[in-house]
Amino acid sequence: MVRKLIFGGRYFGKGSQDGGPGEEEIEHADSLWTILVYLNAFCVTDYFPWLRWITDFDGHKKIIRNAIVTARKYQDPLIDDRIQQWKDGVRTEQDDLLDVLITLENTLLTADEIKAQILDLILAGFDNVSNNIEWAMAEMINEPSIFNKAVRDLDFVVGKNRLVYESDLQKLNYIKCCVKEAFRLHPVAPFNVPHVTTVDSTVAGYFIPKGSQVLVSRLGLGRNPDVWDDPLTFNPDRHMNGDKEVMLTDHNLHMFSFGTGQRGCPAVLLGSTMTTMLLARLIQGFTWELPLNEPHDDIKENFHDLAKAKPLLALAKPRLANHLYPSS
Ligand code: HEM
Fold first, then answer.
1. How many other C-beta atoms can be found within 10 angstroms of the C-beta atom of residue 115?
2. H or E element at residue 202
3. For the domain 127-189+218-324, what is the CATH code?
4. Rounded to the nearest whole angstrom, what is the distance from the C-alpha of residue 262 to the centroid of ligand 1?
5. What are 92-116's pLDDT values in tens digits?
6. Ligand 1: which of 253, 258, 272 to mutate, most ligand atoms within 8 Å of CB?
């Protein structure tokens, strides 16, 4: 989805014969995962910068540099090509985010700046949605009463004669509660991306001097027993608020979904739409069964980054009329 938004195409490279991702796409996606893993990793030289002069102390620099080279090997030629198309007048209409960045009127970006922005956008929109949906689906498949409630929500609001559209999302409060509950209980990483304070501040009685590196614990917020009843249980109903529309953000920081303030996520609407739409379509379009010998999905998390330790494995069967599926 992110690739399509930015580059207007589904995959880098040729794609496989069955229409799935090909080798180039897999190499590109792997390099993005590597960058994200090391972005969130604990790195000794972040805290003892003088060690950087001696050596690449924990080897992170080399790994992340190589991963960036790989990612840019696929992205940058497309960007150069597109800039040329606009210069030559071959392209005249904006089709995707790359076109928008190239044709910004007030802030003319250089090619290097566009390349840096594109890498940042691709990384920012890459892992949150997939992590959230995998956890939400696993928790819901394990608890059929929750799954069935979500199906009823969809059948009531949308019915079975058409697919769910973006215009329905406002009314799909229970689906949004499931997404929000997965953000609360299963954040994409233990901490937010580090921020540095630019002025002396006092927060909740604590003095934080200018220049401090601030890390917010996503688990400390989302699983805080002083704020959430039974915090380790997946219970989407806790986010329902009568008939009021459910929002995935939490500006009080009782949990960490999109963050808040000046450095919070600038793509709240886009991220909310992508995530809710994906979960809604997966639930509306298919029934889901675990493999025969597995009564429950194993919902252990990976110790390092809180992703699922074992990928969710479930069998999807269409539940709507054939003509509603794009490939039929
Ligand atoms: C469900 C999806 C998403 C979630 C949960 C999410 C969440 C976040 C969070 C927590 C931050 C850091 C906030 C902080 O540290 O205070 C962030 C930053 C950011 N996000 Fe998102 N995001 C999502 C989707 C996207 C998408 C699709 C894009 C763009 C294509 C995007 C672009 C960005 C950018 C550019 C930043 C950096 C902002 C800055 O540091 O100034 N995000 N996002």
1. 18
2. strand 201-203
3. 1.10.630.10
4. 12
5. 999 999 999 999 987 789 999 999 9
6. 258
